[in-house]
Each structure stands twice: as C-alpha cells, then as structure tokens.
Task: structure prediction
Amino acid sequence: MREQSVEEMGHKGAMGVDRRHRVMAGSADASMRLICFPHAGGSTFFYHPWRSLISSHVELVTVRYPGGIERLDEDPADSVETLADSLADALTCGPGAELPVVLFGHSLGALVAYEFAQRMEARGRSVEHLFLSGSSAPHRRRRGTVWTRDDDDFWAAVRRLGGIDDSFMEQRELLDALLPGMRADFRMAETYGPRPARKLECPVTVLTGASDPGVPLDSAYAWNDITEDEFAVRVLPGGHFYLVDEMNAVTQLVNSCLRSSRSIHADSARDSGERR
Result:
C-alpha cells in the first residue's frame, strides 16, 4: 500500500460538500450505498482500488477522520462515539442519504461502523448489512497502551501491524504531521471497551485474518452477540491487513451482499407497485 504525501492528499479535504466523507464512485442512478470506515490513520486512498471492484449500481463512500491525512487542520475526535455522532449527522442527510446502506469497517473502522449502525437504527434508518473486519467484539476487547508510547515505540508498533510500505515510514516529516491524528485514532480504539454488547437488527458478517495476533477467533465470533439477525464469520489468510492481499475475496463477498439486497428491494418495489 502506498500512502500519498500531505501535499498530494492533505489539501484535498476541502473537496466535496462535506469533508467528513467522500463519494469515491457511483452514478446518478445508483440503487445502493456502501459506506467504508478506515482503520486508525487510514484514508480514502485505502479503499481506492475498490472503485473498479464494487458493482456499478453502488455508490461507494469512504469516511474521513478528523486529524487524519485528509483533515489535518482539524482536531481529532476524542472517542469512537463522538466520531460516529458526527458521521451520522453527515451521512443521514443530503444527496444519496435515501439509498439503502451497507457498512464496511476495518479495525478502528469496525468500531466506528458498529456505533454508526446504532445511530442509524436509532434514527429509524435500517442498515442492509454490516461488515466488521479486523476487530474483536466490544465485550471481548482488551484495553491497549500503544497510544501512550513514545514516538519511536509508537511507530514501531504501527509498523508491526503491517499495511504500510517501509518507504512511507521513512518520511519523517510526514510521520510528524500524521502523529497526533494517528495517536488519537489508536487511543479511541484502545480505550473502547470492554463494554456490553448492544443489539442491532441488521445482518452481520465478520471478517478476520487467520494470523491476526490482535483478534483471537473467539473474540471475532463474539460479534454474534450484537445482532438479532443473521451472522457469519469469514476467516481469510493473512494478518491484521489480510484484506490488502485478499481484496478480491473481500469485495466479492461484499458484492454478493449488495446484489442480494438490491434484489430484495427490487422485489419489494415491484410488490408495492402491484398492490397499488
């Protein structure tokens, strides 16, 4: 994965109607919306390759965290909950907000997507499907301390997780610019939980890397406690950033869900028309 420089990406945060998210792909006649939530320190660039892999009838939206590379001039969020609040305000109104929604979140993004889904349902909006990747369930999480380490130890821990090219880690000026937001993201993730599981009404699929040291399989399966609907776990080869190498498998799974949801909505609309 090649991260772009601050000059390439940092000033692009002003693009679009709302800096909190970016529409990556989609057409005027899109019938579904896929919202992707990145990992700690992640950006819209992480999901850039998905544009050519996700079904053409889908509007692909990625969220941008405050303090991240696309919102460097803003203070980072102080908790997963406040971040989800802000994103719910941004994404439940405006163009595209009426479309059926599927959510995908990786690592920190899984926690944000889970909280976002809670807010969607609290506002009377259904979630078609929730994909949770690279994260333990809220009630099985252990608090971490990476965010408290000195700069060198902090970046060493980030490097061990993978997902970042060595060349990126050698750009000291860029690392210094990203450090506050990255540390804040880790603090949010590492201080979230353990907490009671809160039920959602949507189906949930959990994805995890077979050799991810931070997500034991039992804690991945424990996400079953947060849904009243269907639940599944997919274990794929790789570590915490398994989805980089397994991108085709991941997007095929998401596309399958999107096609199924689209078919259900088409049948529902047809039935409604026949009743009229």
